[in-house]
Amino acid sequence: MDKKRLIEKTNKYIFPSYKRFPVVIAEGKGCTVWDVNGKEYLDFVSGIAVNNLGHRHPAVLKAIREQTQKLLHCSNLYYSLPQIELAELLIKNSFASRVFFCNSGAEANEAAIKIARKYAKDQGKPDKFKIITMINSFHGRTLATITATGQKIFQKGFEPLPRGFCYVPFNNLPAVEAAINDHTVAVMVEPIQGEGGVNCPSDTYLKGLRKICDRHDLLLIFDEVQVGMGRTGRLFCYQHYQVEPDIMTLAKALGGGLPIGAMLANEKLKDTLSPGSHASTFGGNPLAMAAGKAVVNTLLHDGVLQHCRKMGEYFKGRLTELEEQYSFIKEVRGKGLILGMELSSNGTETVNQCMERGFLINCTMDRILRFMPPLIITEKAVDSLVNALSIIFRNREKKK
Ligand SMILES: Cc1ncc(COP(=O)(O)O)c(C=O)c1O
User: What is the pTM of this model?
Assistant: First the structure.
């Protein structure tokens, strides 16, 4: 079927809830994808921080292939090996002592919100249910998670929203202190805001949040759905900041391309979910778990994290060279291989021009170009994108 027909059929049969580029992706390998016409693109989006090991990483394919020979699904009415193995791997390499598996980031955040509320109830504090979240955060698209999300644009039209959330500016500790009252149970934050524009915490922010939570007996929730799984050069983003949350959510890259989500919690929450209190049919699905295990092992043992840190520095340096040349670039920021370039005007034209030249990049909050290549990206690939950007920007200056 040709591209035009495919796009027409998509528009005919699928709700138009996504703003899509007119490209039909047919194949991917490593850092490259091909569309149905065979046009090649270097991928600096990674399925929005999903393909952290690149497309069809051999270790992930092997794990999936082997699991398909054994078991695709069984209910959580029973125990199953891949689930136990991935849980152990995550727990041995994080602050956590328990994990709940689900299928997406929103679902992991729902579980985090539920466990925070339940914890307070179990402590005999039924009036504590309010969660402080950050302006420009993004936590998902279910009713509770759009409400947790500190951006009105995602909430509009879906009212009435559930109660129990309030918003404060990111990187502002006094605002958190001021928002706390007798109903507050938790503070929920992305260690680096992804959708909100690649906003990084100050050196003291996350530690400051920990101190506030300890002082007021609140739970600290880190949403690492986008920045976890090696994206910043450590397995988890919080590991850069000498601070541990009580709850952390993961999804996206954990499944190596398969749908997955996980909510991890520390020792004090370990008895909060009792049999029947929370569940998911596909949570802990053997195929997704097998892929997840391959992802974590590859990140930990194949030098991917070191490579990510090195390439992150290199890439940021090259983007900063552009910032020094063009006044319409306001800032380059980020950590590891989640990098943002803030422009003074809308970035869509740049995204389209990159696409014409064979590069997938993304733009968030209208003006922030976001670069999230697979963590296995090479210097050569970074150079080729930076060269393309520099031609695009030079032509733009000429036009003026
Ligand atoms: C930080 C963060 N949390 C949650 C989500 C929601 O994840 P999902 O789309 O898998 O529900 C996203 C998705 O972009 C995200 O970036």
Answer: 0.98
